[in-house]
């Protein structure tokens, strides 16, 4: 194909026929948009958004999108696809950043957006049961009315699905406070590749009866089944939320500030996010608004506190800021005075991914690194890009900027290279350099976004052979035909010789 010249479609998989489409229309009904049919009808424009990812980097050629409305429909679809050897790719809000949510070739897209009901909420325990296709922000809005919060928040909340969040084991902005989904998910319902419905939708915290199989689906990126329902423990929503934004002169000082924040703000600390000055300058170039602080600084941090006593929390935060200012750990800072300011400060952090795409594209590396060395990667990659003469202001330079930001509290850096176009010369500087850099420090080449098609060939930099071997056996057990997720016959863990 034009899109993936080095990949070959596995011809053991069937080509879609009119007969297949007729079956799906019978199961889902042909009215509405439950079936977007590009096989018997011309639906190219309608199929486009399902074929392309959020970054406009990965493109498939699916000719059929199915939007099931119930678990039974998902089951019928998968059973049939398994029998007929039709490859599929599950899709939530299509906000994933590793090309995992779009087809590689002509896989059928199973889009979960019609499964969007909230089923129950227990006001005493805080457990919520909802369909996988519910939009994160919608669920969180529902929970807000009940005085609770979804234990995950991220910049894509307006589009991403909670099923997609589980499938990628998304981390987000408050992991430091609410922990990983592996801890907060109570149960799931999932449809396995052969159509079997696995009902593990418990709403209780404890259940030590054998293997905890739901955990395999969290972070599996849809490779062993489709999550159809989610049961999750939702914490009490804090009545008092405060946000501070400050500037610092070195990464040493960022680390000192983090230590102080943990010790002085302790139980009310709910986010500690890092942004370098370069990322903030690029955001400003796109938005042309006033930056939160007057002067420029090489680093910025955003701190959020969430507690139950506004005055007490505010006083604590102010005392912290005064202390770190006196000790010259931070150079300048501002505390949001109202909800509008709070949102505005957050937007300088949450808005980074979108703004960086402004010039044409972004190379993204989502890595875990021991915290002391976290920022060195950005400096090293910047130096290499400059050396290669790739960074500049004119169209002859593919690279607009090399920036770093991320979840300081989780040792999770986002190295982003904003480009005017995706170009081989840039890729040659980045890979395998970045992966080798990470492996040397025993870090992770994908801290929270998953493997998708972007990182699957590099799993060996972060996992040993025995672990990868076990993963392959699990894939083989659930999906012997390798029909789920990417690969049309090559599981995402196997296709090491093929690169985009
Ligand atoms: P999709 O993109 O549709 O799918 C992602 C993967 O999951 C694909 O492999 C797909 O096949 C699979 N999948 C989707 N739904 C299901 C299902 N029901 N069952 C089985 N498999 C399924 N990630 C973070 O971890 N932290 C962040 O802070 C963060 N911020 C982001 C900010 C922005 C602006 C954007 C665009 C993305 C961000 N992400 C972040 C990436 C993150 O992975 C997604 O936003 C989100 O978790 C994916 O949900 P989705 O519904 O869009 O899934
Ligand atoms: C974030 O933290 C997301 O904003 C996206 O994980 C990071 O785009 C990225 O690299
Ligand atoms: Zn992130």
Automatic annotation (TrEMBL):
It comes from the Eukaryota. Its cofactor is FAD. It catalyses: (R)-lactate + 2 Fe(III)-[cytochrome c] = 2 Fe(II)-[cytochrome c] + pyruvate + 2 H(+). It is an enzyme of class 1 (oxidoreductase). Its EC number is 1.1.2.4. PANTHER family: D-2-HYDROXYGLUTARATE DEHYDROGENASE, MITOCHONDRIAL. This is D-lactate dehydrogenase (cytochrome).
